[in-house]
Amino acid sequence: MKALLIDDERLARNELRRLLAAFPEIQVAGEAAHARQARERMAALRPDLLFLDVQMPGETGMELLESLEPPVPQVIFTTAYDEFAVKAFELNALDYLLKPVDPSRLAAAIGRLRGAKGPSRQKAPGPGRLAAGDKVFVREGERCWFVEVGQIRLLESEGNYTRVHFDDVQPQLFRSLNAMEERLDPKFFFRANRRQIINIAWIAGIEPWFSSGLLVQLKGGAKVELSRRQAHEFRERMSL
Amino acid sequence: MASSADITLHLADEAQRDRAKMRLYVLFQSAGWGGFLVLQAWTTIAVPEHEEKWGLGTELAVIFMSFAAALLLTHFLRPLMARWKWKELGWRFLLPRLVAMAFAASAVWYAFVGLWIHGVVGLPWNTKYSVPLVLTMEVFYGAILFFCWLCLYFFYHVFDRLNRSEVERFQLMTSVKEAELRALKSQVNPHFIFNSLNSLRALIDEDPARARQAVTQLANLLRYSLRSGQLETVPFEEELGIVNDYLALEQVRHEERLRLRLDVAPEALKLPIPPMLLQTLVENAVKYGISPRPEGGEIAIVARNSGGVLTIQVSNPGVISREEPAGSTGLGLNNAAERLRLIFGERATLRLRADAPERVVAEAVIPLPSHS
């Protein structure tokens, strides 16, 4: 597994590198001192795993993740003392390490990674398309989530952002709906109208609607209208 | 110092106290005059001395009316005395005024009662004594009554004022203690401690000598920070030493990103400052001037002793932002400013201002203790 270490302190990166020497399956491919450098290194190195400091000069670790083109790699956060961040992670079962890093805690975090399926193991549904198990990073205030694409029921356009519905939350994604449409697997995601994309796997019921349109009800309660043209396309798609 | 919640609480307190005072006043007025009324009525009933009087019913009615008039009269004396600000007078000025007021009130009272019962109701003059004699006696009698009332009234207010200043003194003491406590809490920045420990761990392999030095520096800083809660002031020199330790530790973390310029007048070294003042300013400068900038920057510490004041300036790159990032308001600086004011008085100030473009200066101005 290729890892990138992102921390503004050289000594902190050194320390982590030394600790990671005990785990042969983790290969430290590079280091970055801030968000801009991290984006460059990620483009060049394509890491599977990030060790990411929450507090960094310029952009924070969260802001960096938000700016990344999905799918995001696996992330283990590192933080010295940050109640807010730690709370946000615990809510969403993201992994984090407190500095100075306890080697046994690091071993546990890496153990959990082995269990999780990495993004690279899945076959992409098409060039540039996201697989159902790929993750996108979304944030709402202090809370943040890594959500699997397959778990998203509905995407709604909100200007340059997209509101993503999954579980019982609907945080904002840092991408436009059109940009997301290009990345989603057309086998599962269907453009219902100008503002909404639905996940076909989450459909609970379909009713006929005005002027030969359709009303699609999703699991979780949301209702989405399809115009006559979209309904026609939808019927063709479903009969295939 | 006073948050809006404190102020609201204080106002609620005040309103409650005013209501309590009003209740007490009504109680005193009714009990006092009522008591007199009962006593007088009882005497009239028990000792019917003058046969030529108007009869018991009329007699009682007159007594009742007189006391009702007295109650109303004293009631309307209060706003009058409030307007003349008598409560603020010393007793030497107050006493003659009270005597005069007692006579005036008594004259008004008696004139009103006399006019009413003899003029309006038309009761006959029923004593064998001459009018001037009776009038003089009655006015004297009334004056004594009103004087007693006034004395009671002002005694209460003197007592209340004493009580109140005592309460205020206690409140002040409590707020000082609270400020001390809050200051103590804000002294050790946990983020800094854990980041330093992390760097230290790395340094142990890389540069053992530097690691040993850093442990000592961290120990110095922690010891000083824990102890500073008990001290009112420390020599500037001592605090500067600690700040140097602190900056050395920050330099371990930030390396070439943190640059330092020190310009301290030698005569400033022995002067007293509140503990952790300079430390707070420098910590703030690192937090807002170095940490958020990938390229880092220079922190300058300048201290001057001139014109009877010690001026300490700590500057860092950056601009003053109205909205600080969440969870990191200028609490440290506010606490420092408050402690400075508590120890050195209103003339001591702590201000944050933009200096050159892209440069922020925190400036503490401390008046020197005169010739000590």
Compact description:
The complex is a heterodimer of chains A (240) and B (372). By secondary structure, chain A is α/β, with parallel strands linked by helices.
Describe this structure in words.
The complex is a heterodimer of chains A (240) and B (372). Chain A has 240 residues and is an alpha/beta fold. Chain A folds into two domains: 2-121, 3-Layer(aba) Sandwich (Rossmann fold), CATH 3.40.50.2300; 141-239, LytTr DNA-binding domain (OB fold (Dihydrolipoamide Acetyltransferase, E2P)), CATH 2.40.50. Helices cover 30% and strands 31% of the residues of chain A. Chain A has helices at residues 10-20, 35-45, 61-67, 83-92, 103-115, 177-183, 228-239; strands at residues 2-6, 27-32, 49-53, 74-79, 95-98, 135-140, 143-148, 154-158, 161-165, 172-173, 189-191, 196-199, 203-209, 213-218, 223-226. Chain A is elongated, with a radius of gyration of 20 Å. Chain B has helices at 4-46, 56-83, 91-120, 131-187, 190-206, 208-227, 236-254, 277-290, 331-344; strands spanning 234-235, 258-264, 272-273, 297-306, 309-317, 349-354, 359-367. At the A-B interface, helix 1 of A face helix 5 and helix 7 of B.
